Design the sequence.
């Protein structure tokens, strides 16, 4: 599990004075690529590298809105499921996750590895090795 | 069921040369608000009006990528489920839906009606009356 | 001169209840690529084609805000200046440009033609021929 | 002068494999609001507070493209000009500004202070006091 944190930007809000829901997928992407950096996976990720991550499924549940200047933290966990990489996310707002933060959203994204031409690629050994060390908490979606 | 159609813009692509997945939620929003216009619901929608639609859940399945200049069409259906409005979408790419178009994505979004202060509002009678005339096709997600 | 028109989307607004200023560059891009379609230039535009348009300078003056559901129209004119393509835009809101529309913004963008590797390309003969037929109104920026 | 720094996100790229030019206005906004935080001005900025910043003019010159994962730094300076606040920006990419960074873009934005109803507000004394302490480097645009 990794943690990624930043502040909500002005341009991410809409006329309801909250973060537009489409931006949550961008926050999850930031957290996912941060996971890739922290796990050493990003060395193989990119157009001129070993793989890109094609998104095949996304799901987000919104519990509480985010507002301009809110500090948020995304916890990310990852696992393999056949040829797919599954990421699951808990997005907290306000303060420290271990103390007073509030769960604002839950998300899940499913991906296949592809090359520059969008052709699917198998999970390669170095990635499988990394994934085998990851723990997965089955109960994250039960927070909802 | 309504149909909404437009072309993919340049700025909606990413370095994989396809539409970034977060933009699908924007396409679905365009289709949803087009549904509201066509059903006469948009007269009550807005900050200074009867209600706004808060997003509580989104789900998108991606079958085939969209690319710059692609013409896409979104079919939208809507129903009530308790205090929630549920919208379901089929996104087609390339040509006419009834002839040669290809299913590119399926989506579902769930909403509650709120006022300017983000407080939930009941489904009001005029909206309920409109919703009762809507038909719902249970099999849309079976296309996947 | 070409005209491009559409409605403001919900997700293009910010917490000031107006269109976020960064989106104007997206509206101008839509109008510019519409110009390319109408002039037959888009047949050569794209990653696997003759050229892409790299942006080297942008400028936008805002006179009046755009809001959700506003219908806007962008008038676009283009000319060559050495190796650069210059586009200038007038963005009107509300109703017909020739009758009651209001000037909401003026913009100018400068571009160089590049290939997939971002290397500059000369203005090619077919494009020069098209550009020589374009008229340019020197007084557009005087509207401000 | 303040400095604001972060990494380019995946979703900020386009099919040319570089950051889409509209996102530069978002980077400048992040840098501007960071300036407001560092100068103590953000305490008065917001919908329910003393003022909002309406954008009346933007200008960006692009010297070199930004790419996914690039670290960039924005230097920001501010001054008053009548009732307007003027911000000027230098955007560097790659490494430390004082050592090996490369100038990638220059920008300028002009603003008026407005209230929630978009009505212009005078520069208030606390802001004027802060602005009088700011130094302004006239030569920034000469870097171009």
Sequence:
């Amino acid at each position: 599990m990794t943690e990624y944190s930043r502040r909500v930007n002005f341009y991410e809000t809409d006329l309801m004075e909250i973060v537009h829901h489409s931006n949550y997928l961008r926050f999850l992407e930031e957290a996912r690529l941060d996971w890739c950096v922290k796990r050493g996976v990003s060395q193989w990720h990119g157009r001129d590298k070993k793989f890109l991550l094609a998104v095949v499924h996304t799901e987000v549940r919104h519990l509480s809105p985010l507002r301009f200047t809110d500090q948020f933290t995304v916890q990310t966990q990852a696992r393999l499921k056949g040829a797919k990489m599954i990421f699951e996310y808990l997005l907290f707002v306000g303060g420290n996750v271990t103390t007073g933060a509030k769960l604002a959203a839950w998300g899940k994204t499913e991906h296949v590895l592809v090359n520059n031409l969008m052709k699917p690629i198998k999970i390669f050994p170095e990635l499988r090795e990394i994934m085998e060390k990851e723990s997965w908490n089955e109960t994250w979606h039960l927070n909802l």
In short: The mean pLDDT of chain C is 95.
